[in-house]
Amino acid sequence: MDAASPDSQEHTIETSRRSEVVVVGSANTDYVVYAHRLPRPGETVLGDGFERHAGGKGLNQAVAAAGIARTAFVGTIGDDAAGEELRSALRDVGVDTSHLRVGTAATGIAVVHVSADAENSITVIAGANDDVDGDQVFAALDALTPRVVVTQLETPLEVAVATARWAESRGARWMLNPSPIDRLTRAAPDHPLRALVTRADPLIVNAGEARAILDADDRMTAADAAVALSRTVASVVVTDGSRGCHAGTVAEMTAVAAERVAAVDTTGAGDAFAGVLAARLATGATLAAAAREASHAAALVVSASRGARR
Description:
The protein is of the alpha/beta class.
């Protein structure tokens, strides 16, 4: 599992109590291949190892949040063994899966290549994740009434639109992690999500995603991108790998230094960051304080072997 939760903490699924965090998003089976370097186009390389485990940006974020706050997950899996494995993985760490629906397509998968220098490339086949829809989201959120609702873009864009509109109508905090970013940047100019992004609180992006949204080149720093985005959204967090992150609003921006660790694999670090950030915001932390703890969680992920994360 990409995002880790404390092994020593006992979790229980509390469907009768208000969920503090609801993550709406994707759940995949990850097939992870390790090699000395990533293959070039048309090239075959020999691998050093292989793992299969639960993943998906939504699932990872829910797992990370569940170590801190009562968390529920809303998504869709296939009617197959892989889907049941994902449901069990969520339940094992105390995530409420009462709104994890079984769809008509097979459970989603991701193929992850990881190099010796901790870089990765990922291909995702959405499968059942494309079956998540706005009606499912509204019904689930009405039942769960979270303080914070988080979504990404590995499900249809209407899902992000539904989470934003539900949060606005109920006075909840809406966090958007718009990854993969091309689903946002390639959306039609009049797509509802483009206007709704301004309500993200916060918008969580890495430096590259921030530049893509701003249509800026690689010379724009993460700090400058955070300031620019803060003029258009309720709040923003721009992560920049080993250089830390910038979190805040147009009125106040905080630079958070990254912890110095030896990177083993960066896969899932952003999801751990987002999940912990959501949980700490739901339990009353300021954005700056939540970002500091989220940075610590991401550092733990990049410095741990994949097997140690599960």
